[in-house]
Amino acid sequence: MPLWPAVVAGAATIGWLLSLATARVANWFVMTDELYYVRLAVSVAQTGSPLPRLHGEIVGNVNQLYPVLLAPLFGHNDMPGSLADAHRLNAFLFASAAVPVYLLARYAGVPRVAAAWAGVLAAVVPWAVLASFVLTESVAYPAFCWAVLALVAATSRRTHAHDALALAALALAVLARVQFLVLAPVLTAAVVADALHRAGAAGYSGRALLAEAGRELLRRRVLLGAHVLALVAVVAAAAAGGPGRLLGAYAVTAQELRLDVDLAALWTQHLAVLALGLALAPFLLASAWLVDRVRAAADEHRALALVGLGAVLAVSVQVASFDQRFGAGLVKDRYLFYLAPVLLVALAAALAVRPWPRWRALVPPTVVCAVGFALYDFPRYEKLNADSPLALLNDEVVRLATSPGWAAVLLAGAAVLAAVALLEGMLFLPRRALAVAVAAVVTVALPAQLANGFYRLFAVPGTNGLPVDLDQGVVFNWIDRFVAPADRVTYARFPFDVDYWAGVAYWWDVEFWNESVVREVAPGRASPGPEPWLGELDRRTGAILRWPETRYFLSHESDIRLRLAGDYATFERGAYLIDTERPWRAAWATEGTYGDGWTRPHVPARIHVFPQRSQRQPLVRFLTVRVVSPDDVASVAVTLSSNEEQREESLPPGGVLDATIRVCVPAGGPGHVGLRTPNVTDVHRDASRAPLTGERDRPVGVLLRRATLADEAEPAERCKA
């Protein structure tokens, strides 16, 4: 009786158990990755198009499978509910990897019970904690497993149907995660190596061997055609600016590739960390089985060994190269853990199918692990690190060894001792006793690490300083609660907070928690100059020239660059939601200030108040401003003036002036309110252009903190010059 129905039921059960933990996560943890995939999913839900769009524009995202799968959960203006549903779906998607892993093990000739065991373990690896986040790992993990299964079948079966299936599975895996393009050369290498082995086994040698293998490869027309198309695509991409363009948003990862000693050292560290996550001895035995079976007589064993060993080498080198160039030289096992199912299947085959791997096959993985541990720095983190979930083990290892240096010695020695113990067990112990012992180690280690990962996730506040199970939707979802599901909102990011990263997180929350916030505008991004936002509007009428329009516009109260005309629909968390006039126009805009509101030294700042759309005569408007003086000066003289009045004030250090001033606005052009000060002092750099660095070397006058234009207006016969 086949066990696959029980495996499917087991995967569903594990998915449900995982969902009990993942659905508790009620906040974001990995920014801006989670925001990116949430917005892609919302775009698919709102537009009905599977194409990747952010802020209304198509972006170069290849990993579009995950947002498409998430899309049915979004589009209801209920981000807290959608987020909980996404975390539940993640758990079931991740656990579904048990099915292809079981089928892969069965294909390799592993008995049903051992194959089911491998499938269940693949669903409870330590990295299952990543299902708690809106990241591609949840769908990429089972997609990788299906792709490996299809590649193994294509390598051993050698039919057009299996080749086409392998290409389809590979394409699906790339859509799940573009990283898996690395499997394409793995398939090529496995097919070529298998053809050479078969020709050699048939008695060919030398040129005859190459000719026979070549004839066999030419008969695989589906794979041959795919290689021709791939070559054409690479050439076309190279002509258009570089083959890396095929990677979309990840094109940068194809740049500055280096093959050097540092990469080799980092590569050994990556495999050593993976070995530690798989309880060391099971990793060594599985790797030895792959090395030993590369030239096996059985087609299925040889195919699994060729594809599995190729995947281990290719993915580990790929990830090590990425971490060397973009990961500060740290081991980020989040990108490496896809190899765990391959090794678990190889382990099941080693434990259940005779004979044991030959002793010399243990040497390469043992040497790699020993060197990797000797070079590893054992970084430790206060909270769960989403890029390195296995780093949670470093705390205990370093505590046990008393220092990172001794931890390296301890684990390097442990790798050698584990290999010796395996060798002695294969020589002197009954096969079943050694198999049970190794199986017990990995069966306990994997779920125990997963449980520890979830414990640390919930025990320590997340990256935003809040517990991950604290529901923040009631706070940050205020925009969606106000607008109708069909309404759309545009916002302009502004660095309103002295704490730069607190201000950044504010805008992350705006977009993450509100599906209706679909567009962002960057005042002045397309226009150079000291006040580049003025290039976005008509200087006479205030008409906005280029921005795409939505019904609502979100503007922080301290954004002094400009304010759109319209009705203030609501005010919450320091921001105005404006029901805009259309076509869009500015009610007022500033000149003579930096982007964060500080006035320029010895340059009078002006606030241009634009006429109303239907205005036919001069109107007196009322503008309220807040001016703040620097906190390290004795006193600051401030002059506010318009064509209606003038006020002079003296502010103490850190003093605040709230003043309302009348200004006459002609029908054909703006009125002006001037702000002058002779004071010059140094403050921090302009946070609207770059993160704060701590230097206080920017000369400024005073801070224009806020400007509000009243709706009331008084008719006037004429405006004074």
How are the SSEs ordered, and which strands pair?
Blueprint: H1 4-22, H2 33-47, E1 53-54, E2 57-58, H3 65-70, H4 79-95, H5 98-107, H6 112-123, H7 137-157, H8 160-176, H9 183-201, H10 206-218, H11 221-239, H12 261-277, H13 281-292, H14 299-326, H15 340-352, H16 363-375, H17 392-401, H18 404-428, H19 431-459, H20 473-476, H21 478-482, E3 489-492, H22 500-513, E4 517-521, E5 552-556, E6 562-564, E7 566-572, E8 575-580, E9 586-591, E10 605-609, E11 619-628, E12 636-641, E13 646-651, E14 656-665, E15 671-676, E16 681-684, E17 696-700, E18 703-715
Parallel strand pairs: 3-4, 3-5
Antiparallel strand pairs: 1-2, 5-8, 6-9, 7-8, 9-10, 10-15, 11-14, 11-18, 12-13, 12-15, 16-17
Helix pairs in contact: 1-4, 1-5, 1-6, 4-7, 5-6, 5-7, 5-15, 6-15, 7-8, 7-9, 7-14, 8-11, 9-10, 9-14, 12-14, 12-16, 13-14, 13-15, 13-16, 16-18, 17-18
